[in-house]
Amino acid sequence: MKLYNRGIIIAGIVVFLAAVTFPFWYDRGKTIAPPAIELDTPAIQKLADKRCVEDTAFMRDNHMKLLASWRESVVRKNVHTYTSKDGRVFEMGLTGSCLKCHENKSRFCDRCHDYAGVKPNCWNCHINPEEVL
Length: 133
Known about the structure:
With about 130 residues, the chain is mainly alpha-helical. The chain is built from 5 helices and 2 strands; from the N terminus they run H-H-H-E-E-H-H. The chain has one domain (about 35-130). About 50% of the residues lie in helices and about 5% in strands. Strands 1-2 form a two-stranded antiparallel ribbon.
């Protein structure tokens, strides 16, 4: 059996493979540096005890799980206080605890969430204090 238009078919296969694999080989070796988070806010500087609700490693890995459990506790169980592992007590909620120190959503929350490509649903219910006139 003779293959007619062999050159066109081979060129088409090469173009197809280049187009399909382009995203993989184009980004090879490129990395985007993680965002620099500014923890030196005026609110944090005023604190005598500069600690978050839980330790830094826990908050980096589990802050969304913590906030989801807070939402369940407040909305479904009417529990409004959280006791951390070291015994400190906090009001559950973004505005009652988190945004007191991390007051600038765009410089703190949005930098990491944009880097990770996630869209948390916190702001479906909560109002960003910067947006209140």
